[in-house]
Amino acid sequence: MTSFRQAFKDQTTLYVFVAVLFLVGVLFGALMVNALSLEQQQEMARYLNHFFVNVQDGGEAMSQSSFWSIAALHMKWVGLIWILGMSVIGLPGILILDFLKGVLIGFTVGYLVGQYSWKGLLFALVSIAPQNLLIIPVLMICSVAAISFSLYIIRTRLIMNKGGSIVKPFVSYSLMTLFMVLLTLGVASFETWVSPAMMRWVTPMLLQAADFSI
Q: Is the overall model pTM greater than 0.70, yes or no?
C-alpha cells in the first residue's frame, strides 16, 4: 500500500495530464453534437428508440448474452494501452485513446441531454455514469503506468543509453495491467446485470416523451 501511494505521488503530474486530456475529450464530444445534421439526428433517434424498446422488453435475455462481449471490449481497451506502453512510438497512441474515450462519453451524454432534456440526463446518470465512474479510473491507471513505462524506456535506453535489465519494471507493469483486467470483469458484471435494471426504470419516460417522435 505504501509503495502504491508513493507511486501515485510520484506520478501525480501524469494523472493530472491524463485527466485534463480526458475532460477535453468530453467537452469536444459534447460540442460535436451540435455538428450533427437533421438527418443524422433522426437516424440516431430511430436507433435509440429501438434500443430503448429492447432494454424495456428483453433486457434480461440480453444481459445473459452480453457479459463477455462487454468484458472483452474493456479488456481490449486495457490490452491496447498495455501494448502501446511497451513501445516508444506507442506513447501518442495512449494519449489518443484517452482523448477518444472522453469524446465518446461527451458525445453520448451531450446527445441524450440535447435530445431528451432532463430525461436524457437521468438516463445518462443510470446507464453511462455508474460504470464509467469505475472504468475511467482503471483506464487512467493503465494509461499512466503505460506512459511511465514508455518514458522509462526512453530515458534509460535512448537518452542515457544504459543497458541493464527492464525485466523487473516490465513485470511490475504487466502485473498491474493484469490486475486492472480483473477489475474490468467486475465493471462488466455491473454493466451487464445492474445497469439494465436501472435503464428499464427510465426508458418508459423516454419512450413516452413528446420530443421523442421522429
A: yes
